[in-house]
Amino acid sequence: MRTAEPLTTSPHLIAARQAALVHHHVWDAALTRVPLLSERELDVFRTLAKGSSNRAIATQLFITERTAKAHVAQILAKLVVESRLQAGIVGFAWEILTHGAAVPCATDPTRCHPLRLRTPSPGY
Q: Which is nearest to 45 in space by CA: 55, 60, 59, 34?
């Protein structure tokens, strides 16, 4: 009968820890690249951190949707992330790190997205 390996030496746990450390370094690297963004890209980056679509970004910043899409593509390239979701996560973390509790989502989750979370009406 085989005995269970201690958790500290389990190959699966060691691999998971290594993967977590690599991910941690990837996020740190992306955060260190934020200063590479132009002022306009930072504007887009901040709205992306709130989960905004290209259309919402365009409306809020008074640019075309095509321009918003181009800015998002530049942000992904400069941060070396694979998706707008990853860029949004980096943006959210950046806002928390640079502004602390001043980030609306950190203090009031209903202010995180333009659609806002709705409370059910009485009687439902």
A: 34
